[in-house]
Write a structure and sequence with these properties.
Layout lengths: L2 H16 L2 E2 H8 L3 H13 L3 E6 L7 E6 L1 H4 L7 H36 L8 H14 L4 E5 L5 E5 L5 H6 L2 H14 L3 E7 L8 E7 L4
Antiparallel strand pairs: 1-3, 2-3, 4-5, 5-7, 6-7
Helix pairs in contact: 1-3, 2-3, 5-8
Length: about 210
């Protein structure tokens, strides 16, 4: 992979992970000049992968912020989307909603077992969420965790590799919440604060410690 192609891919990756950015912000992240970042953005814009919006700043001229288009997001594909949708349709046709529920329950049980093997329930909450984020990142969710000043921890998922399945059957998404709650323990609560399927840029989960009474 040439240096130019690598920089182009990193540009798209940063926009996926961090959301809208200015050319100056991307230049700092890419360790290139502002002009170099603009060239990358303009090239991606010409391919329909990014779009920009000029937002008024407090002082000076408007800041141009760049973001991925639908085509840009599609560079980070859903895993085997067509096959997944076909299988979901066949399960529904052959076994009805009860069959779908059993399929999701089996997936949930498998995920819980896999995550529990990687998470130390005796560790601090932030460490548990970080372990879960690493596991999810390895599955293609482009995940990370961020401890918050109030003691909660955010689980950030910048990509959904099962988006087609989740769109077709949102029970998959409800199952994710149950999985996280089971593997992180009873001393915390898990709630979704940003949702890709409701127009969010990504899925964000806030994990809050349960205060002793």
């Amino acid at each position: 992979m040439s240096a130019a192609v690598a920089t182009s891919e990193r540009t798209l990756f940063l926009l996926k992970m961090r959301g809208p950015q200015t050319a100056q912000q991307l230049a700092a992240l890419l360790d290139v000049t502002s002009m170099g970042a603009r060239r990358q953005l303009e090239a991606a814009h010409g391919k329909g992968l990014v779009a920009f919006e000029d937002l008024a700043d407090k002082v000076g001229r408007p800041a141009r912020r760049w973001a991925l288009t639908d085509a840009g997001h599609a560079r980070f594909p859903d895993r085997h989307a067509d096959l997944t949708l076909e299988l979901i349709a066949q399960v529904r046709q052959l076994f009805g909603d009860e069959g779908m529920d059993k399929l999701i329950a089996a997936r949930e049980a498998g995920s819980v077992a896999a995550y529990r093997a990687r998470i130390d329930l005796g560790a601090r909450l932030a460490e548990r969420v970080a372990s879960l984020a690493r596991a999810r990142d390895g599955e293609g969710y482009m995940a990370d965790s961020e401890p918050q000043p109030d003691g909660s921890v955010l689980l950030l998922e910048n990509h959904c590799p099962i988006c087609a399945a989740a769109t077709s059957c949102q029970k998959f998404c409800r199952s994710e919440l149950a999985i996280f709650q089971r593997v992180l323990g009873d001393d915390c609560t898990v709630e979704r604060s940003e949702y890709l399927l409701e127009g969010g840029r990504r899925c964000v989960y806030r994990i809050t410690p349960v205060r002793a009474t």
